[in-house]
Specification:
By secondary structure, the protein is of the alpha+beta class. The protein is built from eight helices and 31 strands. The protein has a domain of 182 residues: Acid Proteases (Cathepsin D, subunit A, domain 1). It has a 16-stranded mixed β-sheet that branches. Strands 19-18-24-25 form a four-stranded antiparallel β-sheet, with helices on one face. This is Peptidase A1 domain-containing protein.
């Protein structure tokens, strides 16, 4: 069952960057918007700028699909319990990945120019499909790449930056649905050269350090890793990306998107063709598009298991901005002690049953080595807190839970779990997050308790090692419209029926 996969796109003129380019770099270097805009359908037909502006919608909306739903539908005998326990296992791998990247990247960020560029008053909205891959309950997007455009399904990930596809010749690749991308079959494919300043945004392969004898012609090899043994190696390139919009038959095309053309790829990306990065770094898809659709994107995730698709919006969503319950909390500023890929927020306290729990600020903060802190992440299913905080949270629920619900001992992975047989109106203590700027995120019970069997429900929160970061996962975000306001450096959230967005 698909939740909704996204992809957002509009159209930028092709990039012709060189080593001597002096244009400002904010995120990725893009030229001014020009007349090239793809018509409905994937035939590459172009419209003039005036005609396009006349019919342009205020934003770009895309469908997303939750990949685990599709996988569950195909798996005979798979239960909701099996699915979530599997997600928890994958979360563990993903968290180890992010922990490794967090510490390794501390203090090694690329500074991008903050020179403003006038954004068009358009937004991109797509449907997102829920998925499986790099770690857990990821969301997938249908993207058409190249000229002529060919369809590929990519994982949406706010926890990484690089966009990449498995590419021919595929020298060491994982199994995916459908053929890999073939650069030779596309007339719009171009390698980024080693002298291009964008080449400095990716790491070279460790086994073969990058040489650059001809800065204007030699390719830019890259290596991008995800912590465990998941990684992609290939050439940094530019290509046209086209996406289906939520409107029937409508598409948008973006030329000159920087992406990794991966010839060696390993890891937990089973079935997908690659990954679409939405992180804070300059190579992410969100960073590359923000000069066109505005410095904001948002998504609204329907409940896990829903047959309705989720949505992702690039640009402003006027309904969301007018929502009376829209709250904001500032993103933590990027420092030399934290990785610049992740969206950090400043968590001050955790409340259960309306009471602030006795958890030290050091447990929730960023340590000197760059570890710790709190991020919001679309690719992690459950929510996680350092083990000292988790033990306090767990005990708070045990102490405040209705004693008529028998506690289930030794239930795998999740705890506490309760037998709620015969109880129609199930009541649980309230759960909230308090941020340092005073913002409070209150969650409905269905966002932090999971009913894994007809008579069993469990707390959808787990602990991580003492030095690990806290993560607000996608299960806790369901039926909230979550806004990444990059212009004002803040996170927005408002309760919303995501199936109606």
């Amino acid at each position: 069952m698909k939740i909704a996969v996204l992809i957002f796109l509009l159209l930028l003129s092709p990039l012709h960057a060189s080593a001597n380019s002096s244009a400002p770099l904010y995120g990725i270097e893009f030229p001014p918007y020009n007349t090239a805009v793809a018509d409905s359908g994937c035939d590459g037909k172009l419209l003039g700028e005036e005609e396009e502006l006349a019919r342009r919608t205020p934003s770009l909306k895309l469908h997303m699909t939750h990949r685990s739903a599709a996988a569950d539908a195909a798996a005979v005998g798979t239960t909701r319990k099996d699915s979530f326990l599997d997600s928890a296992k994958k979360d563990a791998i993903r968290i180890d990945t992010m922990r490794t990247r967090q510490v390794t990247l501390s203090g090694r960020r690329t500074t991008a120019s903050s020179s403003p560029r006038r954004a068009l008053s358009e937004r991109l909205v797509a449907t997102v499909e829920s998925g499986v891959a790099i770690g857990s309950g990821e969301y997938l997007v249908d993207v058409y790449v190249g000229t002529p455009p060919r369809r590929f399904q990519l994982i949406m990930d706010t926890g990484s930056d690089l966009n990449w596809l498995q590419c021919a010749p595929c020298l060491d690749c994982f199994e995916q649905r459908g053929p890999v991308f073939d650069p030779a079959a596309s007339t719009s494919y171009r390698n980024v050269t080693c002298g291009d300043k964008r080449c400095g945004l990716v790491s070279p392969p460790t086994a073969a350090p990058r040489s650059c004898r001809s800065p204007r012609s030699d390719p830019c090899p890259y290596f991008y890793w995800y912590g465990d043994q998941s990684n992609t190696t290939g050439d940094l390139a530019l290509e046209a990306f086209t996406v289906n919009l939520t409107a029937a038959g409508a598409t948008r095309r973006v030329d000159g998107v920087a992406f990794g053309c991966g010839h060696w790829n390993r890891g937990l990306f089973h079935g997908a063709a690659g990954l679409l990065g939405l992180g804070r770094g300059p190579l992410s898809f969100a960073s590359q598009l923000r000069g066109v659709y505005g410095h904001a994107f948002s998504y609204c995730l329907v409940d896990h298991g829903s047959a309705v698709g989720s949505k992702i919006v690039f640009g402003d969503d006027n309904v969301l901005l007018a929502h009376p319950q829209l709250n904001y909390t500032a993103f933590a500023p990027a420092t030399a002690d934290s990785a610049d890929t992740f969206y950090y927020v400043r968590l001050k306290a955790i409340l259960v049953g309306g009471e602030i729990l006795n958890i030290s600020t050091e447990t929730l903060g960023v340590a000197k080595d760059g570890s710790g802190g709190t991020i919001i992440d679309s690719g992690t299913t459950l929510s996680y807190f350092p083990d000292p905080a988790y033990q306090v949270i767990r005990q708070a629920f045990v102490d405040r839970m209705d004693k008529t619900y028998p506690l289930i001992a030794d239930f795998p992975v999740l705890s506490p779990c309760y037998n709620v047989s015969g109880v129609e109106n199930r009541e649980v203590p309230e759960f909230s997050l308090l941020f340092t700027d005073g913002a409070v995120w209150d969650f409905p019970a269905e966002n932090y308790f999971i009913q894994l069997e007809p008579d069993i429900m469990c707390l959808a929160v787990l602990g991580t090692p003492r030095s690990a970061m806290s993560i607000i996962g996608n299960y806790q975000q369901q039926n909230f419209h979550v806004l990444y306001d990059l212009q004002n450096n803040r996170l927005g959230f408002a309760p919303r029926r995501c199936a109606e967005v």
